[in-house]
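In practice, a research group might receive sequence data for several interacting partners and want a quick structural hypothesis before committing to experiments. The following worked case mirrors that situation: the sequences arrive first, and a predicted assembly follows.
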Amino acid sequence: MKKVGLFIPCYIDTIYPNVAEATYKLLTDLGFDVEYPLDQSCCGQPFLNSGYEDEAKSLAKKFIDLFSKYEYIVAPSASCVSTIKNRYKDLIDDDRVSKIEKSIFEICEFLHDEVRLESIDVSFPYRVGFHQSCHGLRELNLGVSSELSKPYYSKARSLLELVKDIKIVDLKRADECCGFGGTFSIKEPEISIQMGKDRIEDHLSSNAEYIVGYDSSCLMHMQGIIDHDKLKIKTAHIVEILSGMIK
Amino acid sequence: MNHQKISKEFLKDKEYASWHDKALWYVREKRDQATKVLGEYEDLREEAKRIKEHTIEHLGYYLEEFEKNATKNGIKIHYAKDSYEHNKIAYQIIKDANAKKVVKSKSMLTEECGLNHYLENLGIEVIDTDLGERIVQLRGEAPTHIVLPAIHLKKEQIAKLFEEKLGAKKGKSDPKYLTNLARESLREKFLEADVAMTGVNFAISQSGSIVVCTNEGNADLGVSLAKVHIASMGIEKVIPTISDLGVFTRLLARSATGQAITTYTSHFNAPQKGKEFHIIIVDNGRSKIIKDKTHKNSLHCIRCGACLNTCPIYRRSGGKSYSYTIPGPIGSILANTKDNKNQADLAFASTLCGSCTDVCPVKIDIHSQLLSFRKEYISSHESWYKKIFYKLLYKILSNQRLYTIFLKLYYHLYPLIKYIGWGEGRDIPKPAKKSFKEIYRSRYEK
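A structural hypothesis for the assembly, expressed as tokens:
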């Protein structure tokens, strides 16, 4: 049984434990020996993106100490994974970074590339707008962004397509940013919220009942706007659907 | 004023802000169509990057080569270390030609140097001949986009401006009518001008010639009619050979406006018979950027504007919100490489979505560069209470016991998040009753 170190980013632990649980369930159901190191907290991204490099460095070191022993590290958050995979090497000088870059996976990437999931026995009979969070799309290459002239693929979308009875709707702007951007959401809340509104509107006008994505942070931001404006649409993390936790 | 404050104002007129976003998104979509019909577009980007890297690495050599060949062609080369020197040289050339009237085709460098203002103070009339630039000049504004200088204006606003300045008929906002009117008034200016100034898109070292890309032919008309041509270029505009040019002309217009090529790709090789041709090569901080490993490749920029069109922030805040000659993501980098950092906050005018990086025809890692400026911002600009907030957050996240206590408190205190600037119009995320750690301990721990 292959061992997986489960990384649950701090805000998912606090706000979306159901997403963490769905990830845990998905991986154990697939036969992995999932270990969740209880001493974990934050990968350092909020600090790095806000310019607090020393704090980010220290959290990165803690992360490496805790996770470098695993053959696989899996997390349900693309932007945290991207921080670890793409930014740690410039942040800290540690031999273990290059090992971690290879062993860490965003959950969809893991299911698609390592597990090579080809079928899944869940049904989700709803119209779904698929939100491609930027860091997963453009930094982890979970898909091909609309800017590039490369053959199209999307790892997360192809997983969603395995779900029975799902209807994935077409959006006008396939991969525009939702405006969260972590520190951006509080530095420039007006644009951040406007971007979120525009994104949600695209889903609404495509008749989506759910906005589904692989990054809870984007979904959290959009859900905040949906709640505030009392809009008729819901958000869900892709693992909640793949694990059958919401039906 | 900083970016956030100006953007907030910009977004108050919802209809206008949405129009601005859609107008630029339309250009981005045209760009997508024009780039995707080429099978080799990604190879072209890679090749352009390679050429730029090579040239910047050997910039001294290529500049000397360019100077040597241009001089052979009869062009007079001048070097300016900063904007002041550039303006002084330009004025001297104008003065020596006993000229009073200058027509200028689009040049972001002369905007960077504040040339119009400088010359006007010395009694020289400077007329911008690019339609968009002429419009903003008549309004006494700066361009809000590097390719589409008047993109912030609706045709009705332009009709009103032309009514006041060019005697247009009241309430007539037909674009064709307005364009013709501008054209007529500009025609007179072209005929009167003694000196024509242009920018430079590419300077070819091998041939000692320059290339100017326009859609209106205004550079050609100006240069053909005036007795003196002054072209201003940054040191980074040089490329080695004429075959390298082919790579860039295929990328430039596709990225900028979704055209296969600009209507005019004008090669200026030598002065016309009996006329003068000067090129001013300007540093103005660029050699400092070359020495900066992280930001060196920002000098690869060919000023196509694609990163502006794609930027969801730029589209929703407008060019003025950047308070810098070059707005948008690339402008935020260039502003931050200046010594005088009035626009340090621009490093945060990005969600780091990376669309700019993916759209850039010369593959500048734009969003990563923006991130790199944030550390500096903290040490010089961050307020004390934000510093305390982050230090406190760090303490909590790096200590499990504190984190556990914090979670209990957070469940009750989360509404306080609004005080860190969560903004109006978005509810604050509510923490779950039990964190995953608690759930895991009670349900799954082995």
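Before designing any experiment, note the following. Chain B has three domains: 1-37+306-382, 39-284, 384-443. Residues 1-37+306-382 of chain B form one domain.
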